[in-house]
Amino acid sequence: MEERHILGDEIKMIIHNAEAKEEKLYQPEANKYLAKMKIGSATFYVEYSISEKESYIIHTAYSHKTELVEE
Predict the structure, then answer these.
(1) Where are the domains of the chain?
(2) Does the reported pTM lie above 0.90?
(3) Is 54 left (phi over 0), alpha (psi -120 to 50) or beta?
(4) I need a surface site. Which of 3, 25, 43, 51 has the fewest CB within 10 A?
(5) Pick from 27, 19, 30, 22: which is nearest to 54 by CA?
(6) What strand order describes the sheet that includes 42-50?
């Protein structure tokens, strides 16, 4: 995640948002969740699962920036 310039605090914020608002996708075959959240001009995605000890296991995180230009 460091090479992708994604901070731990951003990941925590994205997971907290997904859990609080129940805005996440569940992947039953892998027992994982996918959460997304827009922060500034970037959209962040975090794939995670929940351990038996109620902690989060981060599998991957990535982001992309978009800019709409009117012509």
Answers:
(1) 2-65
(2) no
(3) left
(4) 3
(5) 19
(6) 25-27, 32-39, 42-50, 56-65
Closest Cα to residue 25, out of 2, 47, 51?
47
**Smallest Cα–Cα separation from 35: which of 46, 43, 26, 27?**
46
What is the percent of the chain where pLDDT is above 90?
A: 66
| Residue 11: closest CA among 60, 50, 52, 55 | 60
- Residue whose token pair is 């609080």: 20
Which tokens hold the place of 38?
A: 């827009």
48 phi, psi to nearest 5 deg: -145, 165
